[in-house]
Design a protein that fits this description.
The protein has 201 residues and is mostly helical. The protein folds into two domains: 116 residues, no CATH class; 71 residues, no CATH class. Helices cover 62% and strands 0% of the residues. It is built from eleven helices and no strands. The longest helix has 17 residues.
Length: 201
């Protein structure tokens, strides 16, 4: 790390960092996991924080957006459930970093997940996360985003009923609760005014 700092000082403007050097030897997901492991040791935790910041900055300066970084970390190919994967939280931090620098872009966690998973698979992931105490709050936030998306696109409640697989579930089941909330919100949407032929000029 000291060598790269000295090199950058001598060759001012050269985009060389410890992370850029490590990228010559490790893929993004492998390097991110190495940084996470380093954070667990008191002797390397400070270095890991610095490398973590460098990796965030490197992705941004190289022009990667959150959707692309999701792919770089191979989160869509991972065997580990999405929200149990420590790389998800690396990616989540990058989303926050990216949005802070580009607040006008509509780039959210939910929007990216929709690009990688179809609606049925994404709902399965979210309901599994809902059942785990340590990921329940995360699942709740993303399920709220899903309802907002359905409302925005004015998805037919019958379609939502089918997607949530509400039939025969208990009244207090999250699927039923979500559907009931959606149905009420959908009913409050402004109705499209029908134009009478007599009003046409």
């Amino acid at each position: 790390m000291k060598y790269t700092e000295d090199f950058s000082k001598i060759h001012y403007g050269t985009k060389i960092t410890t992370v850029s050097v490590l990228h010559n030897y490790y893929e993004d997901d492998v390097l991110a996991l190495m940084i996470i492991r380093a954070a667990r040791s008191p002797s390397t935790s400070n270095i890991s924080k610095r490398l973590f910041t460098e990796q965030m900055r490197s992705w941004y300066l190289e022009g990667f957006n959150p959707e692309e970084v999701f792919g770089l970390l191979r989160l869509d190919d991972a065997i580990t459930p999405l929200f149990e994967n420590p790389l998800y939280y690396v990616w989540s931090n990058f989303v926050v970093h990216y949005k802070g620098l580009r607040p006008k872009e509509d780039m959210t966690h939910f929007a990216v997940l929709r690009e990688y998973y179809n609606e049925d698979n994404l709902l399965t992931i979210l309901f599994n996360a809902w059942d785990a105490p340590y990921t329940k709050n995360l699942a709740k936030q993303l399920l709220d985003d899903q309802l907002e998306h359905w409302l925005k696109t004015k998805t037919d409640p019958r379609t939502v009923f089918s997607l949530l697989r509400v039939e025969d579930v208990a009244a207090n089941d999250i699927r039923r609760v979500l559907y009931d909330n959606y149905s009420r919100a959908f009913a409050r949407l402004p109705k499209k005014r029908k134009t009478s032929p007599s009003n046409l000029n």
